[in-house]
Amino acid sequence: MNILALLQDTYPTLSRKNLRRLSRIVKALLAMTGRVTMLGLSRWAGKGGSYRTVQRFFGEQIPWVQLYWQFFVAQLYQSEREYLLGGDECVVTKSGKKTYGLDHFFSGLLSKVVPSIAIFALSLIDVEERRSYPIRVEQVIRSEAEKAAAKAKKQQKKAKQKAKPGRPKGSKNRDKTQVELTPELQRIQTMVKRQLAIFQGVLSITYLVLDGHFGNNNALQMVRQCGLHLISKLRCDAALHFVYQGSYAGKGPHKKYGDKINYDKLPDKYLVETRLDKQIETRIYQAQMLHHDFAQRLNVVILHKTNTLTGACAHLILFSSDLELSYNKIIDYYRLSRCQTILGPRGLDEHQRSAAH
User: Fold this and answer.
1) Is 269 exposed, middle or buried (0-12, 13-18, 19+ CB in 10 A)?
2) Quick one: average pLDDT of 294-310?
3) Model-level pTM greater than 0.85?
């Protein structure tokens, strides 16, 4: 009955009949273990949650985006708190050939491409409470154009590796803010813009946090076109340059790029914090830096870790398009987006769930 009371705010978006059905499905979701299926839900739902009832509920057209937003505003929203927008893709392995949207997607848990379905979710992350709330969830259906673009990109990468180093003869400078978005980025941009339109007048969002897959100029320009700042991760071997600090030579264009970064010898003047946890020393650096593939300066935070016993080193590179954002917020916001499970562990089998933990 408590679940049913919580769902009352979704009426009339959800009919009374579907409210009752959903209350039983929610109870089953909270109680059950293993992969979530309609048959599994019916076994855990108890009285009033038969298999046919579950089938009828999911067979109806329900405005889920509006439903998520109504529930969030009524039960969870706190106007004085800060919220981030996080995006992530969840891959669920699937056998057979008949499942809608079945394709080959990369699974981060299994570290390989597997037959599966993919779901992209946008979540609101409460910075103070440190919880995430899904607000828009869509299945990823890759078009033939998107598959062709992925193949072309892979071939282009191979050709680039074989090509001679340096700039091709006769090439001209281009405006790096004017990019052609891939079908994947177009899909995500459409989701973000539609969600921001729903937020208008109620909630103000500044940052969109995405994982390292989106640590590139195209994704950055996509996010900036939405009026947001991007927080993401760069490759560990990213060819970053310090901003040139010297004087003008007196002729030719003004020099922009300074020394190329050496991750083994980071300048102490950019060191902002040092931490020691047992035998692991973490040195945090922050600087405004340039990358030849990006259109603008980046607010870069480097976490350099050293094992004081063995001398082994590793580093992580985070960045934001907001040049004024402090290093501790960049680290905290990125950690929040990665640690908070956007879709929750439901839908994973026991092996995947233990790997996720």
Assistant:
1) exposed
2) 94
3) yes
